[in-house]
Each structure stands twice: as structure tokens, then as C-alpha cells.
Write a structure and sequence with these properties.
This protein has about 100 residues and is α+β, with helices and mostly antiparallel strands. The chain is about 35% helix and about 20% strand. It has a 4-stranded mixed β-sheet, sandwiched between helices.
Length: about 100
């Protein structure tokens, strides 16, 4: 799913008030982390993730790999924070502007 700049700005605004739900540490992107994020999308459409300082991988690479594995869209990567969006097919809670 590709987002327009208006939709991306809207999601960034929503994500600014969120607290990170997941942390990625020294072990980097493990199958367990991927599964946990995938399960996180069952309850919410917008997920904020923190990459800890002891993780040696680039947060942008982690974000793109995680988005690909969970079929989500990267909204933004700022420093060590990652925001992902995945629309709920059954009951969408976030209505994106056109």
C-alpha cells in the first residue's frame, strides 16, 4: 500500500501521541519480534516501535524488513523510532484522508 503525503502526514500526527509498543534490541529482528508485531496489528492499525541503542542494524533497514514481513507500510523512521501502518480489513479504525 502506498500512502500519499497527506495520508502520511495524518498518520504521523496520530503516531506522535503514541507510546512505543515494541522494542528491538541486541538480537535485532527475530522471528519472535516479527510475530509479536504481526499480532499487534490485530488490535491496532498504527504501531510504534523503538530500536534500542545496543542494536547494531540501521532502523530504516529494520523498518523496511519488518514492513515487508508483516505486509504493513512504513509511515516514518525518525532516529530510533519506527511507525508502521496496516489497515484492518474487517473493522478499520483509522479513516485516511483522500
Amino acid at each position: 500500500m502506498t500512502l500519499t503525503s497527506k495520508q502520511r502526514a495524518y498518520l504521523k500526527g496520530l503516531a506522535s501521541t503514541l507510546t512505543p509498543v515494541f522494542q528491538i534490541g541486541k538480537a535485532s529482528l527475530t522471528p519472535e519480534v516479527t510475530k509479536a508485531v504481526e499480532e499487534g496489528f490485530h488490535t491496532r492499525e498504527l504501531v510504534k516501535i523503538t530500536v534500542l541503542k545496543n542494536c547494531l542494524e540501521d532502523p530504516r533497514e529494520i523498518a523496511s524488513a519488518l514492513a515487508e514481513r508483516t505486509h504493513a507500510t512504513v509511515v516514518q523512521v525518525i532516529g530510533k523510532k519506527i511507525v508502521l501502518y496496516k489497515k484492518d480489513k474487517d473493522n478499520p479504525k483509522i479513516i485516511l484522508p483522500l
